[in-house]
Amino acid sequence: MVSLIQYFTQQPKQRWRQLQWAIGAFFIGVLIVYLAATFEWQWLFYIGAGVMGLAVLYALPAYLALIIWRIYSSRNNRRS
Fold this sequence. Notes:
Blueprint: H1 2-9, H2 12-39, H3 42-79
Transmembrane segments: 21-37, 43-69
Keywords: Membrane, Transmembrane, Transmembrane helix
InterPro entries: MFS_trans_sf
């Protein structure tokens, strides 16, 4: 588990890119939910909610890895 966390935190550019994709997918889900509310289509609402949920699940590891990377990089900068 520790090696997996170290692997994720040592690649901030890749995690940042993953976070950007997830944010884009989340806003696509918001757009789908908006269209579902406009046209009152329940099935489209569920699709949009699913897209938003998957985007959050996709973004969560990247977000946590970037936070951990930032904490450790600031600690290392103080020690230098």
